[in-house]
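Practice problem: (+)-neomenthol dehydrogenase-like
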Amino acid sequence: MNFQAKLGTFLDLLWNLIGVKPKNNSFAMEKALGRGTPKRIAVVTGANKGIGLEICRQLSSNGVQVLLTARDEERGTAAVEKLRASGASDVVFHQLDVTDSVNASSLADFVRNQFGRLDILVNNAGILGTESDSQRRGGGSSFFMSRETYKKAEECLNTNYYGAKKVTEALLPLLQLSQSPRIVNVSSVYGKLQGIPNRSIQREIGDVNRLSEKKLDELVHSFLNDFKEGKLSKNGWPTSFAAYTVSKVALNAYTRILARRYHTICVNCVNPGYVKTDINGNSGILTVEQGAKGPVMLALLPDGSPSGLFYDQTRETSF
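Answer key — structure tokens:
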């Protein structure tokens, strides 16, 4: 007799002993296996601080079971404890380096074994891609960008774009088991196509009906090559916050590709606004509570909502 059959027999004996039997014994079995929970299940990447942490808090307050993920286990665990201390009980931690495919697969295995499905994925992990520093003056904060290096550009693309892809690809089979799956890609105002000076590249990335994932990857690879060879300006790439801009433009394009490919999954991207976070030296004008509002809104969209769109906080905007 296999494990599930044994569990079914055990549950029948238990119901007989207590004199109550549920109408749906299969659901009870799913519950005993850690599945079948009525709560929605969400994974949030890069969530040990800032907007990601607040997204977890707001999702939890809306009755969602949240998996807070972060690269650093100590910081991630501390973040969960902080949320629980504030009353957010349905939050657990799982270590995740979004640039590591094996790590992403391990997360997928954990979600599969614990919950059997995934309802919400928020790709929030991101870095600026510059050597930067912040310094406080007169009670305020000032942000200084030192320089952009090829190494930092690679790290930025590997985290913001390729990292989001790795995590999404690992979790897609579990999202497809959900009755109302959602993917939210946290982007930026820098993700707008106008940030790419080269009009030809703008047109290629903006042609959502013809753009393929392979072509998008080729364009990102071309950017990195041009960065390495000092040809950004010559070939019409941005020269300020270059890698960050290209990473967010690519993430937005990937959002549209996913929406076109998976009609049953609601996939959108969002600029959370200029929020006070470590990435900008806390020089933003919005609070993390305000910044999380858009991503959380998209994560909780009702069935039948539009997919493949870009939002500026809570309002639809153009790509």
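Discussion: The chain has a mean pLDDT of 88. Students who identified this feature from the tokens alone can consider the problem solved.
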